[in-house]
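stuck on this chain:
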Amino acid sequence: MADVVTPVLSPCIGLCRLGVDGLCEGCLRSGDEIMRWITMTPAQRAFYMDVELPRREAERA
């Protein structure tokens, strides 16, 4: 029986460049958050997607 692979939720849009504030210009994650993303739990990733990253985006506007 084949294992089912579930894709990892990610905010990456392929614009991978850290800005002067230390956040990715595409997804607004820090370098540390990008490195840890794959090891985060689904709940941790959902928190970033639903709460933290939208907050950062609003602060930039």
